[in-house]
Design the sequence.
């Protein structure tokens, strides 16, 4: 659906984005991760036609965004990290204003406004002034605004920033709903565990370069060159570790309270062989499952490398 | 028919609450006070209570001048923050990422702010119609004056929006807008006088075109022409048809008409430049050529 090839953006001498390549298929939720100033917002703004790329090519459904931005804007919904609201405008008027921009009229406009307010749980606030809403509510309203023209691609820049845990949870639930509706979403966030849970694929960007991208499992494989398997035993932890050490394709053993985290070089066949061996040798295995991995660890690992250079 | 959504939204926001009604009330109060004062003074000076066209000319001139001054002061205040205000409130990106073209955003803002001024002008109609009681002023002349007001308001609005798009802060934009107005109103006269005094060049035909940009000169010449005077500013400009000041006079256009043409051209240029400025993906001529070449090579 969205394809970014060799994207570059320079501000004077500063290279904000450097040869960035990305493919996001339809229906995917892509998590954009990176430290502050890494180039996430710049890339998102270029995709939404709010910044001009220095060079590169971005296509949405095969259409070049950089050359046909007006037609493309109908397909994209954007929620910036910082946004303002209009004074003296009520919640429903706010949404109706953006609906009118997309030439949505009369009853259709009212219906869409109601549906969106329901989606973001702001029906009770429809007659309230936007200025009077809490930050979390404003962010949900802004998300509703980005959906007013039913875009196929949603670009959400830090949608949960500055929210309290409850508001973050509510936002996550809305995003899960949108995922269910088949929207393709690019989302940036600093709350990595939430991204890992929500996203079907992740891209880590640092200093304008895409350091690594793919599904969670692919990233783990790329970073650690292995699958991470978490084994929980009822007891005999030390015996289990000894057995695991017998296999050359198992390493990076980390032990916790009745748990072992192990790196597996082999595939599913090797994993089932090890599991059978543990059970046949009397180890009381409670669970044996490949982990999605800890995105925070990966993030620290791949961005740390650059800092050391 | 599709009405500009930015215009509708602005209208809704601007007209909500007591502020808009308060501005209209205050505006009419000032104009009424001026009208009453002038009529009283003229009656007193003429020692008459009879109907005299002198009264209407006095009242009309007084009202016209005050209204013109008010427009010069109010329009910059309404437009200088149009875009910079959006930037400060962080709402500009939200509009720019929609399908709305930058020129629609700019014109929506301009129509909304000058529309508010137009409302003030229309609200003053009954006051102006008072002069009909005394005769001497025709409806055509009042319409001519109001037409001039609207063109001037749109031009000042365009200047305000131009600075609002080019400067980040509303304060700076407001200062530059008033500064530009001051230059057009007084700076151009100063340049003219300076030119004559320094170069002793009394052939003022060479420098006079600069006064076409002067709103005060245009306004003054309109009133003078309406009263049948071809002296004053028109004589100074030497361009009023029939003034007989010089050989060019018969073929030249009236200063107020010249001012209107200048205003229209200036407004169009400023609005196009403003729209280009807020377009985040605007292409330079070089880019357009490069893209065309790329497409050609692909074919």
Sequence:
């Amino acid at each position: 659906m969205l394809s970014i090839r060799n994207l570059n953006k320079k501000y004077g001498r500063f290279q904000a984005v450097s040869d960035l390549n990305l493919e996001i298929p339809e229906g995917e939720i892509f998590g954009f991760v990176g430290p502050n100033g890494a180039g996430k917002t710049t890339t998102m703004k270029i995709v939404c036609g709010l910044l001009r790329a220095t060079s590169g090519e971005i296509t949405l459904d095969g259409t070049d965004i950089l050359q046909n931005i007006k037609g493309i804007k109908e397909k994209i919904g954007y929620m910036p990290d910082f946004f303002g609201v209009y004074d003296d405008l009520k919640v429903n008027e706010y949404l109706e204003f953006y609906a009118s921009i997309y030439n949505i009229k009369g009853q259709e406009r009212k219906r869409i406004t109601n549906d969106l307010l329901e989606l973001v749980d702001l029906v009770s606030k429809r007659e309230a002034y936007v200025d009077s809403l809490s930050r979390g509510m404003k962010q949900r309203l802004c998300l509703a605004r980005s959906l007013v023209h039913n875009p196929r691609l949603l670009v959400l820049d830090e949608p949960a920033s500055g929210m309290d845990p409850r508001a973050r949870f509510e936002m996550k639930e809305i995003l899960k709903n949108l995922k269910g509706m088949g929207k393709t979403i690019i989302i940036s966030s600093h709350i990595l565990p939430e991204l890992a849970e929500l996203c079907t694929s992740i891209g880590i960007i640092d200093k304008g370069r895409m350091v690594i991208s793919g599904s969670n499992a692919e990233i783990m494989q790329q970073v650690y060159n292995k699958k991470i398997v978490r084994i929980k035993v009822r007891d005999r932890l030390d015996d289990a570790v000894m057995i695991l050490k017998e296999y050359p394709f198992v390493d990076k053993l980390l032990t916790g309270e009745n748990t072992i985290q192990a790196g597996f070089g082999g595939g599913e066949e090797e994993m089932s062989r090890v599991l059978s061996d543990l059970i046949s040798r009397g180890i009381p295995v409670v669970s044996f499952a490949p982990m999605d991995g800890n995105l925070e660890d990966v993030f620290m690992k791949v961005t740390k490398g650059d800092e050391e250079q | 028919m599709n009405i500009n959504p930015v215009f509708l939204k602005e209208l809704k926001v601007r007209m909500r609450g007591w502020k808009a009604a308060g501005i209209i009330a205050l505006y009419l109060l000032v104009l009424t006070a001026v009208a009453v004062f002038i009529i009283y003074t003229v009656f007193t000076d003429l020692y008459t209570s009879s109907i005299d066209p002198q009264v209407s000319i006095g009242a009309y001139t007084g009202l016209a001048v005050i209204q013109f001054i008010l427009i010069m002061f109010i329009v910059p205040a309404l437009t200088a923050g149009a875009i910079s205000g959006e930037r400060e409130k962080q709402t500009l990106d939200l509009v720019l990422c929609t399908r709305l073209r930058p020129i629609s955003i700019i014109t929506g803002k301009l129509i909304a702010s000058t529309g508010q001024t137009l409302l003030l002008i229309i609200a003053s109609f009954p006051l102006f119609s008072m002069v009909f009681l005394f005769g001497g002023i025709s409806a055509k002349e009042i319409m001519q004056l109001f037409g001039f007001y609207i063109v001037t308001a749109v031009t000042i609005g365009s200047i305000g929006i131009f600075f609002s798009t080019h400067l980040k802060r509303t304060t700076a934009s407001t200062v530059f807008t008033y500064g530009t107005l001051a230059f057009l109103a007084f700076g151009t006269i100063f340049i003219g006088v300076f030119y004559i005094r320094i170069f002793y060049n009394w052939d003022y035909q060479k420098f006079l075109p600069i006064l076409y940009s002067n709103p005060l000169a245009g306004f003054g010449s309109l009133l003078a022409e309406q009263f049948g005077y071809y002296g004053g500013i028109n004589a100074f400009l030497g361009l009023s048809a029939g003034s007989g000041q010089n050989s060019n006079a018969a073929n030249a256009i009236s200063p107020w008409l010249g001012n209107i043409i200048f205003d229209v051209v200036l407004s169009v240029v400023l609005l196009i430049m403003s729209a280009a400025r807020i377009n985040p993906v605007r292409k330079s001529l070089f880019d357009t050529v490069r893209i065309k070449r790329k497409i050609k090579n692909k074919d």
